[in-house]
């Protein structure tokens, strides 16, 4: 009966869906300044925050039918959309207040904002003049934030019937929004790759950068890697890094009958083979997990790691450079959080070095991977 109910709910959700649009990206070369100081990072951050806030405000004038049409959905959860909107506004206010602390050094995009009404007022009238120093960036940014906002609202419209990273279910879940300003955490999903593949390149690259990341591995991929090499080689592969789990297979854990076994088996394998690297954290593929799964994760001593900055590096339409540009734009917008790449995607080989170079002088911090379990 329970399985039949899951399948019925899943099919209903699929019936409400249509194909999403291509993921948003923004050519960062349209921005006329290098982010080579904390103050210049703040200038760009204020600009992205105001542009996104302007787009968010505009959606509040849309009724249910207009939202369905815009999001290309047959049915939407208006309460969920309103809840996500409110959370986004709160985050935007906090972020803009943080970004305007350097207005005495550079006043670009500094406006009177001290509370939510003043932020909404400034967002409503925000415009970049055609003869502005930033004119070449303005229209591409507007398009990026309109499309990125649609991504968020689309997930909100389907939540909680289709779970995603757009919201959390409880205290066992973490999405990076609680992190300190200018602090970011790097995560890599769906590995490990085959021997001498992207995982090998990434772990070596991160060690050379004196950085650590959390690698969320699949049990079957780790088992396959162990079958073709040795336990010592795998331990050497992840030296200095953290390893969490994504389950036994890269598939939705919302309506899979064996989802609990998937997590327990993969966690046991990682703890056995990588005891010094293991962190008790599960990252759900696609962000899909059950709304009532909190008790299970608590019983297993596991946290659920989500993300608020998605590279979309699995999208065929994005190159590695476009994926990196998307991540940087979202770092400017959200100013802290969890960044999700996939270490089975070769795109990260070009995206991550570009991202680190672009932000090297921006005053950002990279959280040690062990903190993800705390």
Automatic annotation (TrEMBL):
<dbReference type="InterPro" id="IPR050248">
    <property type="entry name" value="Polysacc_deacetylase_ArnD"/>
</dbReference>
<protein>
    <submittedName>
        <fullName>Polysaccharide deacetylase family protein</fullName>
    </submittedName>
</protein>
<feature type="domain" description="NodB homology">
    <location>
        <begin position="182"/>
        <end position="369"/>
    </location>
</feature>
<keyword id="KW-0378">Hydrolase</keyword>
<dbReference type="InterPro" id="IPR002509">
    <property type="entry name" value="NODB_dom"/>
</dbReference>
<dbReference type="InterPro" id="IPR011330">
    <property type="entry name" value="Glyco_hydro/deAcase_b/a-brl"/>
</dbReference>
<keyword id="KW-0479">Metal-binding</keyword>
<dbReference type="Pfam" id="PF01522">
    <property type="entry name" value="Polysacc_deac_1"/>
</dbReference>
<keyword id="KW-0732">Signal</keyword>
<feature type="signal peptide">
    <location>
        <begin position="1"/>
        <end position="18"/>
    </location>
</feature>
